[in-house]
Amino acid sequence: MLEHIELWQSQVMELKEAFGESILEVRMPRDFPVDVPVIYLEKKHLLEVLRFLKERECRYSFLSDITATDEQEEGLPWRFEVVYQLFSQISKLRIRIKVRVAEGETVPTSVPLWAGANWAEREVYDMFGIVFEGHPDLRRILMDQRWVGHPLRKDYALKGFQIFTDSQSIDPSWLK
Amino acid sequence: MSKDGSSSFFTTKLDAFVNWGRKHSLWPLPFGTSCCGIEMMATLCSDYDMSRFGAEVVRFSPRQSDLLIVAGIINLKMAPILKMVYDQMSDPKFVMSFGACASSGGIFNVYSVLQGIDTLIPVDVYVPGCPPAPEGVIHALLALQRMVAAGETHSQKRLLAAKQA
Known about the structure:
heterodimer; A: Beta Polymerase, domain 2; 7 strands; B: alpha/beta; four-stranded parallel β-sheet; 42% helix; globular
């Protein structure tokens, strides 16, 4: 991947010119043990940066995945990192965007940019309890709707079983 | 038969005869949820040939089968469905727990996986392995046949208790 490093560097420079101090940190493959550039953002400019990457000539137009990590630690000002994996179908390169959020903080939804973000954000909500502001249909996607808690949080009991004797009933509005 | 007309001796013999027939014509329902299902198919196919023991007619409707083979991991969302399938089977019904995941949750001791189907439905035979070898499945089937002939399965014991009550 190191043969693409110049291209990545120019893309990151472009991004820094456009957004300046809202880019908190950039980790490039040469300096850090990462496979693709990792860009840490301030939350308020997330959507603008994503739109920039999607629509400018670098064309990171394909959203591979949205996920999150629980970084729970004493004294850390944030708790979760929401991770956006982008792929460019023109240059065949990938890039990773990360946003740090504290517990109870919301993240703006990226459904207006990618319709496919809908289910990915629902999964992040289901597993970590991160609320995506403006999401059209934010409810659990993997776990039962009656489930209490979010299983991939560090403080969720590893064996926290919640057994339901019947399948969840289906709300007709979900099928629309 | 005794002189007063009660037919206790005769019925027991009939039960034994019926159980003998039952043991040689088990109709399995394959509840294959993961890789154990592949091993179950291998057992049913010509190399190992479960039809030698009269259990080759696989039915995908619980109403037409009497042996529930749970082959694979059962997660909590699947558990109510397994319970419903079991409830729909007509008596007497037998359950084979196929492999480590169905028997105990296996390596998946996490929030989303049922820790053994015996927490939900009564199990007659367990087959160890991950996945079990077809020989193990045949061994379990033979063990189940012995249990059916002796009337030792959960369902038969429950029916007997209901009859005596």
